[in-house]
Amino acid sequence: MDKKVTVVGAGFVGATTAQRLAEKELCDVVLIDIVEGVPQGKALDLMQAAPVEKHDAKLIGANGYDESAGSDIVIITAGIPRKPGMSRDDLIATNAGIIKGVVTQVVPKSPNAILIIVSNPLDAMCHVAMATSGFPRERVIGMAGVLDSARFRTFIAMELDVSVESTHAFVLGGHGDTMVPLPRYSTVAGIPITELMSKERINALVQRTANGGAEIVGLLKTGSAFYAPASSAVEMAESILKDKKKILPCAAYLKGEFGIQDLFIGVPVKLGRKGMEQIIEIKLTVEEDAALKKSAAAVQSLVDIVSTLN
Length: 310
Ligand SMILES: NC(=O)c1ccc[n+]([C@@H]2O[C@H](COP(=O)([O-])OP(=O)(O)OC[C@H]3O[C@@H](n4cnc5c(N)ncnc54)[C@H](O)[C@@H]3O)[C@@H](O)[C@H]2O)c1
Known about the structure:
Layout: E1 4-8, H1 12-23, E2 28-32, H2 38-53, E3 59-62, E4 73-76, H3 92-109, E5 114-117, H4 122-133, E6 140-142, H5 145-160, E7 167-168, E8 171-172, E9 180-181, E10 187-188, E11 191-192, H6 199-210, H7 212-220, H8 227-241, E12 246-255, E13 261-272, E14 275-279, H9 286-309
Parallel strand pairs: 1-2, 1-4, 2-3, 4-5, 5-6
Antiparallel strand pairs: 7-10, 8-9, 10-11, 12-13, 13-14
Helix pairs in contact: 1-2, 1-8, 3-4, 4-9, 5-6, 5-8
The structure holds nicotinamide-adenine-dinucleotide.
Nicotinamide-adenine-dinucleotide binds next to helix 1 and helix 3.
């Protein structure tokens, strides 16, 4: 392949991300983890699936960063996931240290890479990655909105008994309980769901979406969601690798857009070869704007905690 993506963290999200990248034949993949043997074993196992899955992507596993040199994209999934009863925010101190260490090692090997951050608490970890890397905001992007929107789309399709492919949804804000699903901009075949469902049903789906990660944590008991998170990270990577310029909700560093300054938060973004190529500012109602500002305040409080950790 002429493209190379490094996935840091060979756990549930990282290994599934590597699998999807390879099976879509988007790039060669380097899988890195601190645990000896795990990235090597998973990469070899995935390579042995290639003849059956019919792709020629190469996968290698490593415990160091030499193999990652010259990556086009580095997807960071390293860190601890939450357990039942934990919020994403409970992971902050452990994962901030991990992200800092990872990014410090990634940057000298791949100074031109685009970083896609997955580890939680997502928006705060994007701050750590941007500060540590010194990269411009175009090359540090967080994965959350694609996943949250996919969850909303799933629930809309289930509710209306329609194909998920006919659905479209937008979820803005931080990746947490304060996320802001936007029913007005969520559609089935272009028809806003506000025309297709009662307010009560929409509110129920919005609630289930905001609680989507916790619902799965509660079922799994030993970890958090990984299939849909991996799919979401790969959709972002694909848009960048193929320069598709998809408009996807991603955590981006705002410099005044939506009236928010110097903060990572989920907004519609154009993803292309240069990374975050544009932030699409959509007009929000007074209520939506208030919800986004509330979400921004929640992210800001985590960023403040991160700054006390240094
Ligand atoms: N943004 C999102 O929407 C979203 C969705 C799902 C999961 N997540 C987050 O992604 C992260 C990973 O989740 P998971 O389910 O794959 O967890 P996991 O425990 O299965 O995998 C994490 C991996 O990171 C590795 N690791 C730890 N420190 C490392 C380091 N310094 N360098 C390299 N590897 C290191 C661990 O050994 C482990 O294999 C968690 O923080 C989770 O909360 C985010």
